[in-house]
Amino acid sequence: MAAYDTKLQHILQSAARIFAAHGYEKASLRDISRETEMSLAGLYHYFRSKEELLFLIADTTFATIWQRLEAALAPVKGKPLPPETQIRRLIHNHLDYYISHRAEMKVLSVDSDALTGEWSKRFHERKRRYTAQCIEILQALARERGLPLDAAACRLSALALFGMMNWLYQWYDPRRDGDANLLTERMAGIFLCGFLAEGKGGQMPNAEPVRSARHGLFGTPRAE
Amino acid sequence: MAAYDTKLQHILQSAARIFAAHGYEKASLRDISRETEMSLAGLYHYFRSKEELLFLIADTTFATIWQRLEAALAPVKGKPLPPETQIRRLIHNHLDYYISHRAEMKVLSVDSDALTGEWSKRFHERKRRYTAQCIEILQALARERGLPLDAAACRLSALALFGMMNWLYQWYDPRRDGDANLLTERMAGIFLCGFLAEGKGGQMPNAEPVRSARHGLFGTPRAE
Predict the structure, then answer these.
(1) Range of the domain at A102
(2) B112 HSE (CA, 13 A, CB side)
(3) What are the φ and ψ backbone dihedral angles of A166, each rounded to 5 degrees?
């Protein structure tokens, strides 16, 4: 059983590299056979189709991120962590995993769109749960600080945050852009300062008058 | 000539829909022939390969965004707009085009990765110029407000902003998430408040003590 798991992990890592490099649609099982140094028949012992392989990569990646997040958010002596700490830990967990598993995260961010039917359904259930967790933390943070941000505003903020992080695969260069700690500081800094200031009605430190932030260029007063 | 251009535009719009729906690799010229109601021979009058078609969609989309941005940023009576206005207009221009051309923007954000050789080179030159414009505005904003943000910090912030916006294709629902004006207010609000507060060393409105924002969880003091 341990040998089976080790082999499967080797296959998933190799396949993630191939998918990330060539794109899921273009990559063939023959490419994966070459990369893993396993025969096609040997590979079919672990999955039944290229789509199942894609699902397995996306699913195990998500499962790992989720487990690590649960550990990072665990209450200390029965007391839940403050919401700001929770959101910083979510960001750090996501970025830390991302930059040490870039192939898997590109597959998760981009190629997973190719999943269909039951695979797609199971994948989107994980994604929905992960997003919901982030939205919940933001709602708790808004409540704690007395900010009038409703579920819709927290949802949009959560999705803006995931966009900020998931776009990494397009530009991240470890020599230039620093490690997960530095990225977390920068992104959590931008996101949290922005989220909290937005919630206060756009009181930007050192900013132009609030009027310009609220109604300035485009004339539309905010909906709430 | 006008007829040629009209037809080409029709082809690019139809092909963008097909690429966005099925993915570039999976979509066939036969799908595009069906969608445009043109023969394959007729299509080849406008481009020589599926890759050239992908390039044409990405290139004309980028060219349009760029032209509209130049118009939005044009100096008034010879005086450049304030940097904060410029960055708000860049965000509005991007989001406004994005939500009215979602197929093209998905192709631009995702499928354009499939471009190779000279096509890829020309596409990345446009992308580089667009990103550089955003970084320049952020640097001007930082200078104006006396914020100690160097080119690397402005680059990371610009890429975080593009991530926030380009991820839209994954979740944007016009009935739920509002129009370009509302999205601009929200995203510009989060981004600008965060960028400016970060530049001040993380003075978050209504925040936990600065120490926790700077060194709190992960132990690494910031690099600068």
Answers:
(1) 51-201
(2) 27
(3) -75, -15
Using the structure block, give the residue that is written with the tokens 């000279």.
Answer: B118
Angle between helices B29-36 and B2-22 (to 10 degrees): 120
Q: Confirm whether B59 is domain-assigned.
A: yes
Residues 102-161 of A with CB under 8 A from B: 110, 113-114, 145, 147, 152-153, 156-157, 159-161
Query: Phi/psi at B23 (nearest 5 deg)?
Result: 90, 145
Q: Which of B26, B85, B185 sits opposite A222 (nearest CB)?
A: B185
What CA–CA distance (Å, rounded) separates B37 from B31? 10
Mean pLDDT within B65-90: 97
C-alpha A186/C-alpha B202 separation (Å) is 10
Q: Which of B156, B160, B197 sits opposite A193 (nearest CB)?
A: B197
Of A25, A186, A205, the CB nearest to B203: A205
Cα distances from A144 to residues A139, A189, B181, B217, in angstroms, run 9, 19, 29, 20
Residue B115 has what pLDDT?
95
Contact list, A216 vs chain B (CB under 8 Å): 85, 88
Residue B96: left (phi > 0), alpha (psi -120 to 50), or beta?
Answer: alpha
Model confidence at A85: pLDDT above 90: yes
Q: Do the Cβ atoms of B192 and A204 come closer than 8 Å?
A: yes
Q: Which of B165, B175, B190 to mutate to test the interface with A (most CBs of A within 10 A)?
A: B190
pLDDT above 90 covers what percent of chain B?
Answer: 81
Assess whether pLDDT exceeds 50 at residue A217: no
Query: Structural domain tally of chain B?
Result: 1
DSSP letters for B170-220: GT--HHHH--HHHHHHHHHHHHHHHHHHHHTTS--TTPSPHHHHHTTTT-P
Q: Which of A150, A198, A224 to mutate to test the interface with B (most CBs of B within 10 A)?
A: A198
Size of interface A-B (CB pairs under 8 A): 197
Does A104 reside within a domain? yes
For residue B66 the two structure tokens come to 């760029």
What CATH number does the domain containing A130 carry? 1.10.357.10
> What 3-state class would DSSP assign to B110?
coil
**pTM of the entire predicted model:** 0.88
> What is the distance of C-alpha A175 from the center of its chain?
22
B116 vs A171, B112, B121, B166, CA distance in Å?
A: 17, 9, 8, 21
User: Radius of gyration of chain B from Cα atoms?
Assistant: 21
CA distances from A203 to B32, B81, B117, B193 (A): 50, 22, 47, 8
Do the domain assignments include residue B122? yes
